[in-house]
Amino acid sequence: MTTPPTEAPTEDNLKLKGIDFYHTYAEDIALFAEMGFKTFRFSIAWSRIFPRGDEQEPNEEGLAFYDRVLDELEKHGIEPLVTLSHYETPLALAREYGGWRNRELIDFYARYARTVFTRYKGRVRYWLTFNEINAVLHQPFLAGGIEVPREELSESELYQAVHHEMVASALATKIAHEVDPEIKVGCMILAIPRYGINPDPRNQRVAQERSQFDYAFGDIHVRGYYPGYLLRHFREHGITLNITDEDREILKNTVDFVSFSYYMSVCEAFDPENYTTGGGNLIGGIVNPTLEASEWGWQIDPVGLRIILNEFWDRWQKPLFIVENGLGAKDVLENDTVEDGYRIQYLNDHLVQVGEAIEDGVEVLGFTSWGPIDLVSASTAQMSKRYGFIYVDRNDDGSGSLKRYKKKSFDWYRQVIASNGASLEA
Questions:
Q1: Is the model's pLDDT at 7 over the cut of 80?
Q2: Where in the sequence numbering do the catalytic residues fall?
Q3: What's the rounded mean pLDDT across residues 266-272?
Q4: Which is one GO molecular function term here (predicted)?
């Protein structure tokens, strides 16, 4: 089966269109509905609504586009789950303001958030503030619109940017609840279990300490204040932040649920130079000799998802939403399909562990895979790193017809949804 795009690409715009969801959203959503999707996660591009990011008035054409997307979702009975900022701080805010290092971005973001909350009131119940907000510690430009290389940023500059994002996130939560008390707002963090490479307590402590730098983002979102271990880190490393009394009050606007991405786990050691370092991901870490890895070096650890679900639930007692999980692979299109049994196995094994966590008593709101359709990978800027149930004829050089093809996993996932997981193989 193929679905042609509604507008053919030209030589001039091939490399700028991605998978051209802007023009194919109706056909793509129809395919999601065919799979039985109950929820579809997508992001609103901040720069579509405020092209520079600092305008006083929004761009009506951008708002109208998302009206049309929501129309299609409603037609098919699919619940939207919307991310406000998914690695796309408007470029003018990065280049002219210094990205999230600049406090002014809090007000710009708040104006954007209020605009879309108001526009889509009653149509979108579930919102996420920032995608993988803790990734700014590792990729400041991707996650924070900061053009200065990570190694040239002082720790104070980096954590000041983190603070601005945390305040903006809490302010958006406050605004959402003012606009519509029925709105549920969640934070979104990159979840990654960290295991000590062996039983040496020093390795276990390193794993715990590095996990805390991820936990901190959830702790602040859920508890409304900075945890003691992070304040200690600031004191001992000379990190000074401008945190106002107003900031502290805003941070008390805590989230309704916690969402996260999960792809892999890593090992940690106090003497990492004595071990093999993992490759292919934003986080690093030491290779776990007990696990296999994807083609991009991401170690495959389904049990780690159950561990994370239990740890987050025990720590925060907030409903959890797995909003990203999937396998990036070099799919081969043959006879108008892809035999992606490796993806089926990956997702099957992870979803089985989600079921185990639910039996453990964890409250899981839902699961959305990354991604339901092939798209450009954020970590590598490649189309050839494919995640979807739907193959898009698009190559790394921008060539391709943009036609859509159902992979083998398409029908498999349809059965998983229809059976509410009963078709999974333990």
A1: no
A2: 324
A3: 96
A4: beta-glucosidase activity
Domains and CATH numbers, the chain: 2-418 (3.20.20.80)
Per-residue pLDDT averaged across 143-165, rounded? 96
| pLDDT reported for residue 2 | 36
Give, in degrees to the nearest 5, the angle at Cα 410 between 399 and 308: 100
Question: What stretches of 58-123 adopt beta strand conformation (E)?
Answer: 79-85
H or E stretch including 274?
A: none
- Quote the tokens at residue 330: 């070099």
- Residue whose entry in the numeric block shows the structure tokens 């003012």: 178
Alpha helices in 180-301 (DSSP H): 201-223, 228-236, 245-250
CB crowding 357-394: b at 16 or more within 10 Å, else e: beeeebeebbbbbbbbbbbbbbbeeebbbbbbbbbbbb
Q: How large a percentage of the chain has pLDDT more than 70? A: 95
The rounded distance, in Å, linking the Cα atoms of 287 and 277 is: 6
* Rounded Cα distance, 217 and 135, in Å: 10
| CA 138/CA 147 separation, integer angstroms | 13
Full-model pTM: 0.94
- Which spans in 224-340 are helix H? 228-236, 245-250, 302-316
